[in-house]
Amino acid sequence: MTIKTVGMISSYRGLETRADWLWQQTSHQFGIWGNMQMQALAAKPDFLLMYQFDFPKPPPQQSWFDSLRKRQQKSVINVDSLLRGVNKERIIYLLREPPLDEVLEITNHNYQEAQKYCSYISGPDDFAPTPDYMPAIWYHSNTFQDLNEMPPPQKVSPCSWITSGINRTLNHRQRLDFLQSLQSSGIKFDLYGRNLPEWAKKSGELGNKWYGMAPYYYNLAIENYADNNWYVSEKLWDSLLAWCLPIYYGGTAADKLLPPGSFLRLPSLDEKGIAYIQEVTATPDFWYQAKDAIAEARQIILHKLNLLNWLSNFVSQNS
User: Fold this and answer.
1) pLDDT tens digits, residue range 224-243?
2) How far, in Å, are 54, 172, 292 from residue 265 at the CA level?
3) How far apart (Å, rounded) are the C-alpha atoms in residues 103 and 150?
4) Inter-residue contact 133 to 257 (CB < 8 Å)
5) For helices 234-241 and 285-300, what crossing angle results, to 10°?
6) Residue 197 DSSP class
7) Are 106 and 125 in contact (CB under 8 A)?
8) What whole-number distance in Å separates Cα of residue 294 and Cα of residue 310?
9) Where in the chain is the domain with CATH 3.40.50.11660?
10) CA-CA distance, 164 to 187, in Å (whole number)?
């Protein structure tokens, strides 16, 4: 079997220089999964993954006066120069951000531009050329073998929530409002995250999400978007891989991808939701009841939903 290499470009800051991107998501060395090898920086890959790549917009037309003043303009990225000679039939575009109202114009622009360069274009929304769930990635530093074989870690605390203080969209602000209400309720949970507001009672940032999840029976996994049948993110995968029972707020995609009972549905981001969290986290009973379903869900995430497995299937179908 000939191993095909998959290169990658992304607009996520820092990701485009990561030689080992996704290598932790396989038990093989150097990002090998089946018939493919993830080599993000390969000079001449067989396939190319454009992962949440934001295509440049042409600069606005300058007036004669602006040209005369020689106003400095940002240079437009030459997309062709980034493709490393890969044919269109072997270029994949995966958009993974949710279709929030505030970014719909950007999302539509990316889909339109991607059709010039890519044979497969997908995103977690109805207006994507190919609507589909996002293949799973996760943010634990554990090896694949550890995650695959480990028993449940010792659980010593009821509940955690790892989130951020981002407030640039209405959905983000709704989540922060719920955080404030939840903390005011007196329910015991530990909060971790970056750039949280001053009023938040937080335990600090985490270099590895594992330490903010593994010791807890429950984890609040609250998506930034819950209004379609496609969007589900690493918030759910991370929680389950740490053997938490997620208290999940999101769309219906999770119900189609994971076994029943492997997560709990947070009904709403209001007083009803707070009452539900209080009821669940008061006892570890729900976690014990869900332990077998969590174990099954973890194997699905690791072996089936895994982005490397998705890429391997794509390579098989297009080689």
Assistant:
1) 999 999 999 999 999 999 99
2) 33, 19, 18
3) 40
4) yes
5) 110
6) -
7) no
8) 22
9) 144-304
10) 19
Tokens of 49: 């993954």
pTM: 0.93
- pLDDT tier at 71 (50, 70, 90 boundaries)? very low
> Locate tokens 């997309």: which residue?
79
Tell me the fold of 144-304.
Rossmann fold (3.40.50)
Alpha carbons 278 and 280: distance in angstroms, whole number? 6
Interstrand relation of 32-33 and 36-38 (parallel, antiparallel or unpaired): antiparallel
CB-CB neighbours of 260 under 10 Å? 10
* pLDDT tens per residue, range 110-120: 999 999 999 99
Which residues does 15 contact at the CB level (< 8 Å), separation at least 6? 8, 21, 40, 51
Count how many residues are written for the chain.
Answer: 319
Asked if the model's pLDDT at residue 67 lies above 90, the reply is no
What tens digit of pLDDT does each residue of 259-287 get? 999 999 999 999 999 999 999 999 999 99
CA dist 14 and 93 (Å) reads: 19
211: nearest Cα among 252, 244, 250, 177: 244
